From TrEMBL:
InterPro entries in the cross-refs: Nudix_hydrolase, NUDIX_hydrolase-like_dom_sf, NUDIX_hydrolase_CS, NUDIX_hydrolase_dom
Keyword Ribonucleoprotein: no
Pfam families with a match to the protein in the record: NUDIX
Protein keywords: Hydrolase, Magnesium
Keyword Heme belongs to the record: no
Molecular-function annotations in GO: hydrolase activity
Domain Nudix hydrolase positions: 5-136
Stretch forming the signal peptide: none
Family to which this protein belongs: Belongs to the Nudix hydrolase family.
UniProt protein name: NUDIX hydrolase
Cofactor(s) required, per the database record: Mg(2+)
Amino acid sequence: MNFPTHIVSVGGLVENDDGKILMVKDPVRGWEIPGGQVEVGETITDAFRREVKEETGIDIEVGNLISVSSNIGIGIQYDGISPIHTIVTFGLNAKAISGELTTSEETIEVRWVDRNQVIDLIDADFTKDRTRYMLNFDGRITYFIFSRNPYVVHGVQYI
């Protein structure tokens, strides 16, 4: 019996005192909100703090869970061989509390963006949709189910 392999990741909206949203530019994926994989033994909130700090230089105060996304398509790991099964991404919101914007090995640019311009920066459709659900958070957690290559939305539920 093959056991499923799931990747758990976290990403989210980091807002500054001016109401702007923190965005990062990945050299391959382009503009997106900060985040990444949860490491072994790490909580999702600790992973979010770490990823934001690593990618942008900003320290945050984590707020609430605002979305969950499931990429149910099977992809291939960076090694070109190993499969990636379901990727479950927890979306959180946060407040910037200190730090200076800086790039990293993972980011070629970081910036604060007006809330109404965030979606326009993003190229990938699934990233646009996932981010749009987070920006439109109304107190209900969005559960967004999709697959990539080709991009297909399998469902959206509100919890």
